[in-house]
Amino acid sequence: MTGLLSVRDLRVGFGQNPKANEVVKGVSFDLGPGETLGIVGESGSGKSVSALSINRLVDFGGGRITHGSIQLTRSDGTVLDVAKADEKTLLGIRGRDVGMIFQEPMTSLNPVHTVGAQIEEAFRLSKGLTGAQAHKATLDVLGRVRIPDAQSRLGYYPHQLSGGMRQRIMIAMALAASPRVLIADEPTTALDVTVQAQIMALLAELREETGMAMIFITHDIGLVAGIADRIMVMQNGVAVEQGETDGVLDNPQHDYTRHLLRAVPHFTSGKAVRDDGRRAEQQEPIVKVDNLVVRFPVGKAWFKPKGAIHAVDGVSFDLVPGETLAIVGESGCGKSTTARALLGLNSKTRGEIVTEAGRSVRPVQMVFQDPFASLNPRLNVEALLAEPAIANGQRRDDALRERMTFLLDRVGLPQDALTRYPHQFSGGQRQRLCIARALMLNPDVVVLDEAVSALDVSVQAKVLELLVDLQQEFGLAYLFISHDMAVVERIAHRIAVMFAGQIVELGEARAVLSDPQHSYTKRLIAAVPAIERRKQRFAVDMTQVPSLVRPPGFEPSPAQWREAGDDHRVRVEDTP
């Protein structure tokens, strides 16, 4: 063996009879020093199980390697078959030879210890460093992952950092042991597009600096295009295609690879915007939001707040029937707070929210990001769909049951679904249930808060088609909150770009995406990953989002706007 890692005919199963319940079925691949392998596929394809087998973390999830070999060349030149290694040997390779970055950093970090203490612990366990040595090494590694003001951030707890910063901390912990192979399991899925671009740029830089090899797992084939040397496509536990990145992307041989490439929404800078549903001049808005302000007090000093988080500051927009307004921006910019204020889930500090009730006494309904968390696992579908109607004073009668079966049919679910429970459906089917439940009261407006971001690309495409069909059939207005610009391009008629609690650009979708005017909008669009941009290299950006915590009594200066075209306005930026 001349490479760093050689996997041959890997088979992994679960349960009491793992050979009969295999989820990885004969996967083989090689990885050389400094090389990046992208493993792509949808949920259940076996990509994460294959990667977790390399350091045998799969054992802790009930998995067992039933066949095959995993030949790993260690730093001392010896070759270890990880598939046959005992637990004591495995403890020596985890972290040191094979590092790991997981998808959700908040659940991977200990919430009761500072990030500095957690990184120092990684150095103590992997290299035996303590005291001043561990402290210095921690500062050095924070610098390597481009965390500004590293000294003060050592005392932060995970909840005090943004998602992107937490993920950088996870990368720093993985780098503490100087691994020869780094496994990144969906490390950017939960991150906004600009933060995602920064993490991808950081990983690429670190690979060049350290010479480590990397296995990058994702369901987004467009994302992996910019970092992988080779791509392996997995379906139902089998590697259906693998090869050089350009070859797989430009000349895919397997039907499933072609299907994945078709399903991924390709960002086209406004060329794919919907042409239907242009707002007519005579249409009256179904929702009007005027100068919405939402603030949350922080800290106490003699029973008075020390200041306030200006989560939403002076936001104004309207929605007409049959229209989709997308709100885009980074985590913490205020987009979800705006939506929750619209539903009355957050109290507004001031401003006006006017909903013109048309078909329903409860004109605004919501579909959340995680369909499983949105559905009570103890209730069957009939009870789940009846719940909003009963809460609205309706009786559980034949008319209500007829409404349920009608909506199940419209969202593409069989009538026998009424007797089933949430765990008996796939992720895409559960999101369809959430959409049906939101429509039970025949609302005028549906708020979709990252409603398709947790879905695989092919399921995502079908749910987006469903949303468009339902909008055209029922004349629904959508407030669509997302960080995925390629998805936004395919569903939005108009776009509002939010930054630091304020709308900085608002207008017709094609105009905003093809001709962005505000510096933040330009940065947002430039960061969108795409297969066509695979050769583009992002530079690691140290720019920080300004703090939203303001002292008591602080009021921002009134917004100044300029017209950038028909139905396209841009907030005038402060000059430095």
From TrEMBL:
UniProt GO MF annotations: ATP binding; ATP hydrolysis activity
SMART domains per UniProt: AAA
Reaction(s) this enzyme catalyzes, per UniProt: glutathione(out) + ATP + H2O = glutathione(in) + ADP + phosphate + H(+)
Topology within the bilayer: Peripheral membrane protein
Domain ABC transporter: 7-261, 287-525
EC number annotated for this UniProt entry: 7.4.2.10
GO biological process, one term: transmembrane transport
Subcellular locations according to the entry: Cell inner membrane
Region (Disordered): 550-576
Enzyme class: translocase
Keyword list, A-Z: ATP-binding, Cell inner membrane, Cell membrane, Hydrolase, Membrane, Nucleotide-binding, Repeat, Translocase, Transport
Gene Ontology annotations for the cellular component aspect, listed alphabetically: plasma membrane
Listed Basic and acidic residues bias regions: 563-576
Gene3D superfamilies linked to this entry: P-loop containing nucleotide triphosphate hydrolases
Subunit structure: The complex is composed of two ATP-binding proteins (GsiA), two transmembrane proteins (GsiC and GsiD) and a solute-binding protein (GsiB).
Functional note: Part of the ABC transporter complex GsiABCD involved in glutathione import. Responsible for energy coupling to the transport system.
Family, per entry: Belongs to the ABC transporter superfamily. Glutathione importer (TC 3.A.1.5.11) family.
Protein name per the record: Glutathione import ATP-binding protein GsiA
